[in-house]
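Lecture 7 notes: from sequence to structure.
We start with the chain below.
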Amino acid sequence: MTRREMEAGIVTDLTRRQNYSAYLQLERLLECQQPLSDPAHHDEMLFIIQHQVAELWMKLVAHEIEAAMRMLEADRPGKAVKHLARVKEVQKQLYAQWSVLETMTPSEYAEFRSVFGRASGFQSPQYRHLEVLLGQRNRRMLAVYEHLPEWHARLSDAIESPGLYDVFLRYLSRQGHAIPAHALERDFTDTRAVDADVVAVLRVIYEDPQTHWDLYEMCEALVDIANNFQFWRFRHMKTVERIIGHQMGSGGSTGVSFLRRAIEQEFFEELIAVRTEIHRDTLGRED
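Predicted structure tokens for the same chain:
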């Protein structure tokens, strides 16, 4: 084998603060994987890392969605779409990684499932925060986070504030589109219902995308994110079904049945409703 000489400029003094491990706080990060099984079950490490990685990706998704909201508030839709394009790619990582957990067999999972008690992904405050940012609101869920005062306050504030889609509607209004006042100033603690007046505005955009390209592109970016969230939920449900069948969830839910119902909860429903209306008046008409 040919010997490879080290380049003269390579930094070898890793005692500096600017080295790779220090910048990423790797020592702290790599100490966070602490299996509870005794002796440690081989697959518990996989289970812990899978969920920790998902939490890191979710942190980035929220970071980018909040940035997109700020860009819309500043009337910079192109920058908002850029942030949402990154969200879309991160979401692909999130739902693709379920295939890694699927390499664990039901028997292997059963051997350490009892050690984490009632812990469940259902309890993740970051996951709940993402749902709120995307418009799914449920004040009753706040009770789950009373033991986490900072998260409880953050979620409470998010539930009472406009979400990503609300910010988009406000942007549409500032651009001269006839978004009704009741859709702009409303009780944000409630999940939006489909509004025919809003669908009518979206129909104008979808029937003439060349004139409204920036808005059309934004609408499609929102649909991408909504679909990817549902892909994640579906892969989650199928992974749980594959590993524990129809047993109860560790957090007390009905497991697969609970997850299947979550898939029925759509985001940005008006962007689906408008597809039914596009060029409806001309469909089937003979020239």
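Points to note: The first helix runs from residue 20 to 24. The mean pLDDT is 92.
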